[in-house]
Structures are given as structure tokens and as C-alpha cells.
Write a structure and sequence with these properties.
This protein is of the alpha+beta class. It contains 4 helices and 3 strands; from the N terminus they run αβαααββ. The relative contact order is 0.18.
């Protein structure tokens, strides 16, 4: 049975999905808010929330763990220095997805903003 094994497949192979989520996570850490397709935002949420939870405790081991998941040294540094300290007292729920009313111009895909909670 597949209980609890749901993944947003996004029509791509697992390696592509992993690279896509890594890139979206790096952009979210860098900019604080990104506009993307709703499904990609929903796939990004658990990934980035786990990273922030790890980054709340700043140790070498946690930095290395985040680097293996993100594969971007600048994003890891920014995660540990700028993003995670804001959420020290927060037990979870670090991101917010705001759905946009209109679809994307070319194909009408539902879009959303994903941003860190202030």
C-alpha cells in the first residue's frame, strides 16, 4: 500500500524533480519569495521546511547535511545566517503559499507565490 508516499511528480523523472526542487529552494532562500506553478510550490514546501528546521541549530554537521540536500554553498550560508535565526522560536510552518487568481498567460497553469512567513 502507498499510505504516506505521495509525491508531486510534475511530469518529470526523479532526478529532474530533485534538481528542480533544489533550484527552487535556492531561489526561495535567496529572494525570500518566488512565483511559480502551484504544484511546484506545494512540492517545495516540505523540502524547505525540513531544511529550515535543520538550520535552526547551527552546527557543522547540520551545515553539511543541508549542503547535501541543497548542493549550493551560498544558499546554505544564507539559510543559516539570515533565514533560520528568524524562526528560532517558531515550531513549524515557515512558508506560506498564496494562490493567484489568474492562470499563466501561455498555458493557463495555476500560479502561486511561495514565501517565508514574517
Amino acid at each position: 500500500m502507498r499510505h504516506g508516499n505521495h509525491k508531486y511528480k510534475m511530469g518529470v523523472k526523479p532526478q529532474h524533480r530533485k534538481a528542480l526542487v533544489q533550484g527552487l529552494a535556492s531561489d526561495l532562500i535567496k529572494h525570500g519569495k518566488i512565483r511559480t506553478v502551484e504544484t511546484k510550490a506545494k512540492a517545495l514546501r516540505p523540502f524547505i521546511e525540513k531544511l529550515v528546521t535543520i538550520a535552526k541549530n547551527d552546527t557543522i554537521a547540520n551545515r553539511r547535511l543541508c549542503f547535501t540536500k541543497l548542493n549550493n554553498r551560498d544558499a546554505v550560508n544564507q539559510l543559516f545566517t539570515n533565514v533560520a535565526p528568524k524562526f528560532k522560536q517558531r515550531p513549524g510552518g515557515y512558508t506560506r503559499i498564496l494562490k493567484l487568481a489568474e492562470g499563466r498567460l501561455g498555458d493557463g497553469a495555476k500560479e502561486a507565490f511561495i514565501a517565508f512567513v514574517e
